[in-house]
Amino acid sequence: MAEVQAAASVEINDAMFCSAHVKEVCEDCNFDGREENDAFFGYDPMDRDPIEAPNVTQNKEGVYQCKKHGSAGCNQCFGWKKQITRARTAAKKAGRK
Ligand SMILES: [Zn+2]
Ligand SMILES: [Zn+2]
User: What's the domain of life for this entry (predicted)?
Assistant: First the structure.
C-alpha cells in the first residue's frame, strides 16, 4: 500500500492552509484545515465554505505575508475570524452543519 503523505500545510496569521496552493480546503493536496481553524478560533467544526487567502508572498525567512501590505500579521488581509464567522453563518442559513 502506498504511504499517504501528510498534507504539507502552512500557517498564515494563525490559520492553516495547504502549502502548495494556500487553500483552506484543497482536493489536490487532500487537505482540509477547517476543523483546525474553527477550533483555533473557538468554534465547533462544521461543513462551511473554506476561507480564502489573499495573494501572498514568502519573505526570505519563508514567512507568508500579504502581497498588498507586505505584512505577515495583516488583519486586513488575514482577517480569518471575520471570514470564518461569515462562512459559518452562511452555512447555517443553508442548513448545513
Ligand atoms: Zn493544495
Ligand atoms: Zn495586507
Answer: Eukaryota
